[in-house]
């Protein structure tokens, strides 16, 4: 009798093993590769993506998440991703980068069963790829509006030159066509005479170069900064504290890094979106071949006003004016035309 029970048990184990192999992670399960195009630490969009996926896996025992950091050599990403998915062990590759759809499309031609979900990017018509584009023109518009209010103010570090600054790690279409023009348009809605000083670091890690650029821009009259620079942004933060200037920050709550200097932070609901994507993927409801635009109206971009870093350091009149503008943004009442990407 005991012998039969052991044989039946062995048979069951074997059978379940085969099934898992046949459907990658098995019926009702999900295996996800979170492909980080850079390194996670210091890059808000990546930190939130990885955190969301890991939180989802912790809440679902049938979901397995592997986070892979691709590093900064962009020329290697396609080959690297190709070898990562070649074994067929991932149901879904989850990433967040405007350059990923093109790479995924190339990898996908070699593995027609592989699916990709990419945020911070836009791609229509590829049946293996699903994308969500954050409306960064919108976030730039409201952060730029705040920068405009501050540079024209009588705040302690504001001067009379009406110069705001933008420090970028590298140039790419979403940055050059939406983020930087949106930031300047937002500021010019406060005062059309405002000028933008735009500088490029050349990579996503060199905080010293970012600090040098920031200091020379302060000398040239810039009193409010923004940056899209991943880990290198820490150099900009250091230099505004040393040199006396302000910054607005994209995507994440960074007030505590420099209270009184970082006076406005946007919020990207990337963690929420990552969890929603994985919930849909697990339920087999993810739509491929489509791209969705997600902004403030849709609840995926916002501004963090409920923080001492904003409340305690900005004059009341600026808070009132900005809060009213932000409210109009949330309600979709601010009209603008974002250029094509
Ligand atoms: N953003 C980061 O915060 N860290 C990075 O390492 C990083 N690398 C990028 C590499 C490429 C090729 C591109 C196109 C964008 C990169 N971004 C990075 C920008 C990021 O995807 C996003 O657009 C910005 O963070 C603005 O939300």
Fold blueprint:
Layout: H1 2-22, E1 30-36, H2 44-59, E2 63-69, H3 77-85, E3 92-96, H4 100-110, E4 115-119, E5 129-134, H5 136-151, E6 163-168, H6 173-188, E7 195-200, H7 207-219, E8 222-228, H8 233-243, E9 246-249, E10 262-268, H9 270-282, E11 291-294, E12 301-303, H10 308-311, H11 316-330
Helix pairs in contact: 2-9, 3-4, 5-6, 5-11, 7-8
The structure holds riboflavin.
Riboflavin is lined by residues 37-38, 43-45, 74, 97-99, 120, 136, 172, 174, 204, 228, 230, 250-251.
Task: Note down, in words, how this protein is organized.
There is one protein chain. This protein is of the alpha/beta class and 341 residues long. It folds into two domains: 2-134 and 271-294, Response regulator (Rossmann fold), CATH 3.40.50; 136-268 and 305-330, 3-Layer(aba) Sandwich (Rossmann fold). 43% of the residues lie in helices and 20% in strands. The protein is built from eleven helices and twelve strands. The protein has helices at residues 2-22, 44-59, 77-85, 100-110, 136-151, 173-188, 207-219, 233-243, 270-282, 308-311, 316-330, and strands spanning 30-36, 63-69, 92-96, 115-119, 129-134, 163-168, 195-200, 222-228, 246-249, 262-268, 291-294, 301-303. The protein has a six-stranded parallel beta sheet with strand order 2-1-3-4-5-11, with helices on both faces. Helix 2 (44-59) links the parallel strand 1 and strand 2. It is elongated, with a radius of gyration of 23 Å. Residues 5-23 have low confidence and may be disordered. Residues 37-38, 43-45, 74, 97-99, 120, 136, 172, 174, 204, 228, 230, 250-251 line the site of riboflavin.
